[in-house]
Amino acid sequence: MRRGEEIGCAHHHRWPMLVVALVALEALAGARVMLRLFRSAGGTRIGPGTPPDAQTFAVVVPVLDEALRLGPCLTALLASRGVTEIVVVDGGSKDGTRELVHDVAARDARVRLVEAPLAPPGWNGKAWNLEAGLRAVETTWLVTVDADVRVGPELISEAVARATRDGLTAISIATSQQLADTGSALLHPALLTTLVYRAGLPNVATGDPRAVQANGQVFVARRDALVEADAFRAARASRCEDVTAARALASAGGRIGFYEGDAVVRMYDSWRDCAANWPRSLTLRDRFVPAARVWAALVEVLFAQALPLPTLLALLLLGTAVPEAAAVRAVALALVMMRVGVLAGTRRAYPGVSPAYWLSPLLDLPAVALLARSALRRRHVWRGRALVDERSA
Length: 393
Fold this sequence. Notes:
Layout: H1 3-39, E1 57-63, H2 70-78, E2 83-90, H3 97-107, E3 111-115, H4 125-136, E4 141-145, E5 149-151, H5 155-166, E6 170-177, H6 182-199, E7 204-206, E8 218-222, H7 223-229, H8 231-234, H9 241-251, E9 256-265, H10 271-282, H11 291-306, H12 308-318, H13 325-346, H14 364-376, E10 381-382, E11 385-386
Parallel strand pairs: 1-2, 1-4, 2-3, 6-9
Antiparallel strand pairs: 4-8, 5-9, 6-8, 7-9, 10-11
Helix pairs in contact: 1-6, 1-11, 1-13, 6-10, 6-11, 6-14, 10-14, 11-14, 12-13
């Protein structure tokens, strides 16, 4: 055999081996994700089946330049059962947010404005606003709600009832998403799926800080537990302050629930806004989780979520050029079908979404790339303000 033929033969054998190795890694990552999904399946959302609680509670709404979003949020909160006080904590708005709050407060005495002092060194604005809100109220249950959220009239009361019944320290809500444009319908579900693959399904509770899921858009917690765990201080330099606060509560012995419920949010004004800002918190990197674990989770998502579809398409194009093609195609197909199943399951989080939603797996690879870039980046900015980096705080 001539040397050129020998080299060609070597490449012929090496290529199938690389394909088999790639699919084997995908299968391993997919099996881990599938086990995670199986273990978190079967929970029930917070809804009409949860009797509303008779207790009352205060709501803290941290804001910064939210004049265009805050009105509907306050209207929904004022219509909620059991809400006795709504404290809007402003971090220095310049767009009319404070004037809006004063107007609403003039009509309903339950609303008041707290102007947070300048955040101390080492604190990010939202965590500092939450800490200021915590100090401003005295109540058994404290509820934090983001300004872009509209809660259903029974949701908070039902969440408190579920927490009381199940002995939970805190509950947060997996909200329904209103998407701004077609690009968001493609990108947002791909990013959300990375969270589902890493953390499992909603409607579960845990006391393991590493397994905690949380969403600060609607967060309900016992005030005494927040104070005892110093949860917002623990999250002062975190880019995912909601998850960090929940992890602090779990580290102090609490059980944290994460449930779907009657709340709607429009997080971002465009797909560019989503791509620029959501990955910052979605990496889930904080003081409780070492960087190695974050990167291991991202690699797992890469192999389990992002690569199976392009792998399957490549195998179909190669046809019989890979001797083991039938077996590796079957594995890749199984992982793609798992992805389709998750896509069908998360569809209920997107009321009225465009048909582009069903094409969102095409953006799985860019979604993982955005998370990796965010995890590497040390400087992040939110509304013109540089955020503290926990690694240097």
